[in-house]
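Posted in: Protein Modeling Q&A

I'm a second-year student putting together a small comparison for a lab meeting, and my supervisor asked me to include a predicted structure for Enoyl-CoA hydratase/isomerase family protein. I've never done this before, so apologies if this is the wrong subforum. The sequence is pasted below exactly as I got it from our records. If anyone can share the C-alpha cell output, I'd also love a short note on what stands out.
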Amino acid sequence: MAGRRGCRQLAPRTREGPAVADDILLTEDLDGVQRLTFNRPDRLNALNQPMAEALLTHFEGLRRREDVRVVVIRGAGRAFSAGADLKAMGQPDMLRDGPKGDWVLRDLMKAMRACPQPLISTVRGAAAGGGLAIALASDVIVASESAAFHPAFLAIGLSGAELGVSWRLQRAIGLSKAREVLLAGRPLNAAAALEAGLVSAVTPEAELDDYGMALARDMAKAQPDALRLTKRSLDATLEAVSFDTALEIEERAQMLMIARRRG
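Accepted answer (user: helix_wrangler)
Welcome! Here is the predicted structure, written out as C-alpha cells:
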C-alpha cells in the first residue's frame, strides 16, 4: 500500500523490522494514518499484563506524534478483544490490575482520551469487558456484521461499571439502554449496536478494514490543528454544563484556526 512505513513490534521489548508471530501489537504508518493491530489472535486478543503495558506506552507516545493524524484500531483474527485473559490467571503474564486498582488499564483509558488524534475502532467479533472499554474510549466505532459488544464484567463476578464504561455507554446509547446492557449483562450484536447509536456503521466482514481506512483518510484531509482542536472541542462540549459554555469552547478553537490561517 502506498506510503507504508512498515510494521513494528510494540511490547516490553522493542525493535524495528518486520512483524513476527509473537508481537503483541503491530503498527503500520500509512501517510498520516496509523493502523494499530492487537496481535494475540489465538487468545482472541485478550488483555494480559504485557499487552496492557504496551498499549499504555503506545498511546502515551502518540501525544507528541505530529506525523500521525488518525489512528485505526483493530484486532487480528476473528475478534477485536475478549477482554482480560482469564486463562493467564496464576501465570507470570497475568493481568495484575485488581484489588489495589485498575492502574494500568485506567491509565490506558485516560491516555486514549488524551490522544490528540481521532481514534477509530473497527470491531469484528467480540469486544468484551476490557475490549468494550477500549472501543468506547475511541472517537468512532465501526463494526462488521459479526461484531458483538459484551459488558462481561457481571458474568465473572465483577461490578458492571468499570474502566469508564458506565460514563461512555450512558452517553453513547442513553440511560435506559446502557443500564439494561450493564445490569443484565446483555450483549449488543452489530445490528442492535447500530440501532442504539453505539456504532456509526456496520459493514460486511470483508469490507470492514477498507471502510475504517477510508474513514481515517477522510479525517486526515483536514488541517492537522483543525483536526486536533475539533476533537478537543467535542470532548470539552460533551462535559460542558451549559450551551453557553459549549459556544465559548468552540469559539476559542475557531479563533485559533482563523489566526493561524491569517498568519
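A couple of things worth pointing out for your meeting: Residues 4-220 form a domain with the 2-enoyl-CoA Hydratase; Chain A, domain 1 fold (CATH 3.90.226.10). Residues 243-262 form the longest helix (20 residues).
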